[in-house]
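Internal ticket - ligand job 330, calcium ion:
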Amino acid sequence: MSTKVIMDVDTGSDDAVAIMCALLSPDIDLVACCSVWGNLPVENTTENTLRVLQALGSDLPVYKGCGDAMVKNLCKNRVPQYDPGVFYDENGKQLKGHYDYLDLPAAKRGPEAMDAPSFYVDYLNHATEPVTLVPVGPLTNLGFALTMDPGIVKNIKEIVIMGGGENLANISNCAEANIWHDPEAAHIVINCGAKVTLVPLDSTHAASTTPEDCEALDRVGTFASRYAATLSRERIAAQHAFTGGRVNSTAVHDALALCAVIDPSVLQDVRHVHCEIGFYDFNDGATIIDHRCIPDEPNCYFAYSADREKLAAMMREILGRGAKDIAGRD
Ligand code: RIB
Ligand code: CA
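stdout (structure tokens):
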């Protein structure tokens, strides 16, 4: 029995891998993708999402979402984003985790006419069975949708969010990018009343992809597996540069979140906790877990680790289901 899923993506290299896994897994019935700002402007994330779908021969609807946070960027003096610096490879190409456009043929179609928040409200109010939401970018679209109509929770089976971190951060000294980009939206989503599972940096980094995993994906031989290897190698090269050579792997964050819907046992050390979102000063965008001996009522499941070998094997198996070449190419 497959799970109905709506993905919310800021495509994005790791988003692209997650979308391919969702399209190819028999355990996922991908209903739609909603695009959002984050890694890149929403125009780019929308085009990139359409390019990935097109490459796998899918005409799945894409609903374009928000281009900025609900309120954060209207406020002065919020904590600035960490600047990793600018690095180039031996050919003078700038190294990035997310390039402006995925190196795929330009999309031949555009997004649907309806915007993403309106799609959530319309679809979830008329759904005939509960849907699992998998947001792997800033939570702005869902923040607005839940504000427009809190009752849509009735048809949300679970929200599996790539976001947060307790012992790891990336975009600031204490926050993970998706939550940091829109803390107010994250607060709304985590406390909306649906079952919420956070797949934070603690788990995604425990399941990092290595150069050897990329070689294994290449050997699988489908377009999707080879493209996932290409995207992962780009991410590894950027990480290697950003860390002064200390890191030679990459957390394909969004793929873990999607694979957790397929097989929850890929997450490890999952705890039912109370999580607050930081809004001010140095905790802006942080996921703050209540460790008191009598904590507040739990509001989410937080995965502190993950099974690296299991994720690598899942990606090989799922991405191995695709065509040998990009769709539409003879
Ligand atoms: O912090 C990692 C997250 O931020 C991932 O979803 C990545 O795609 C970026 O959106
Ligand atoms: Ca993402």
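Auto-summary: The beta strands are 3-9, 28-35, 62-64, 131-135, 156-162, 196-199, 267-273, 275-277, 287-289, 300-306. The longest helix spans residues 223-242.
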